[in-house]
Amino acid sequence: MLQKTSGIVLGFLRYGDSSIITRVYTEEYGLQSYIVNGVRSAKAKNKISLYQPLTLLDLVVYHKENKDLKRISEVKNNYPFSSIPFEQKKVCMALFITEVLSKCLRHDQPDPELFHLIRSSIIKLDAEKKGYENTHLQLLVELSGALGFRTFESAEISREFPILLSDDEKKILRTLLEEGLHFNAPISNSQRRTLLDCLLHFFAHHIENFGQLNSVEILKEVMSA
Length: 225
Prior knowledge:
- This protein is of the alpha+beta class and about 220 residues long.
- The protein contains seven helices and five strands.
- Helix 1 packs antiparallel against helix 7 (about 215-225).
- It is globular, with a radius of gyration of 18 Å.
């Protein structure tokens, strides 16, 4: 059955000579996997650029319950990026956000409110010319709330995990937990790295098989440049 939905791309794997399997977090159906034939060929109607991390799509899909791999009938870019693919810091941040989402989102669990939270964060990252350096921290906090384990007490995080926080960092973390996407306090690169480690430990405690993220060290290095 053909169905319309919006989607956020979490990446793709090559499949065969010219096809891919893409993972898309959809508004209507949660996390889904789609096979897209011929997209890597020179004559492909739909270009592979549509399936880069965090691309926002409008989709018409063949949706059938209990089928692992589904197909896309129609696809178009819902929001062409103006900066994310072209700025190194934003590219690294996008890869980090994609990896976090891949760890947290579950198959077949639609959550329109969570979908729009993620979508608005992506648009915010793309639109802002400056002051976006804390977007990944803001989104982690908002995700923790949407997934049901957000705390407003920084002491709870620092008590549960061996992260040494200065008094200033505790104050910043408390403000970040309270304000989420509205957080705009100036912080240093060192403080940003410490807070990131703290929040990732918090996620690892609550998300099964969260593990280590490959993009973290690259993100830290690029954001410090």
